[in-house]
Write a structure and sequence with these properties.
five-stranded mixed β-barrel, alpha+beta, flat, 196 residues, OB fold (Dihydrolipoamide Acetyltransferase, E2P), 4 helices
């Protein structure tokens, strides 16, 4: 639990630390005793200072909102990627990670990709798609042509990875199941020692 709290505090510090530091740098000179030194006319100074404070406040607020919404977005990305993985088990379906785009047209693109399950590298034509390097693509094969069914951009994949690192919703249940199995194994070992 402590590790989870420390991880969340570190995430918030990374998200809001820089904007807060900039805000402090902008506001601090006006609070210091020598803050009344006039290098430029009062009106220009006050307008510039006010603009800098407003910009820093907007930056702090947007960073805080982004940090607050990130866990929900990460959960959604994780669920989307899990859905793609499950659907890749259907016949003639495959989940591919795009390694590079060979060439692209408005009708589709030729990509070099790796199958996530088997690790096989494939070179195929995807109709009506425009995928960046690092994207995951759920493809249904119809002959030599792959039809794109679903995709996850590299940012979605990164968000899903963050959620997996954080521990997805079923993660606590898996730990509880492992603890129960270990406890049962200890009971069995103890019983075997008593029977000897």
């Amino acid at each position: 639990m402590t590790r989870l709290i420390l991880r969340e505090v570190a995430r918030w510090v990374r998200a809001v630390g820089t904007p807060l530091a900039v805000l402090a740098i902008v506001v601090a000179p006006s609070l210091l005793p020598f803050g009344n030194v006039r290098l430029v006319p009062d009106r220009a100074l006050s307008v510039g200072w006010l603009a800098a404070v407003i910009a820093a406040l907007i930056w702090v607020l947007t960073a805080a909102v982004r940090a607050a919404l990130q866990p929900a977005r990460d959960r959604h990305a994780f669920q989307h990627l899990q859905d793609l993985r499950v659907r890749s088990g259907l016949p003639d379906h495959s989940l591919l990670c795009v390694l590079r785009r060979v060439w692209s047209t408005p009708a589709g693109e030729r990509v070099s990709a790796v199958d996530v399950r088997t690790g096989a590298v494939v070179d195929l034509w995807l109709t009506e798609s425009d995928l960046a390097k690092g994207s995951y693509a759920l493809v249904s094969f119809r002959g030599a042509t792959g039809v794109l069914i679903g995709a996850a951009s590299p940012t979605v994949v990164l968000a899903a990875q963050r959620q997996a690192d954080r521990g997805h919703p079923g993660h606590g249940q898996a730990k509880a199941g492992r603890r129960e199995r270990h406890a049962a194994a200890r009971v069995i070992r103890t019983a075997e020692m008593l029977l000897r």
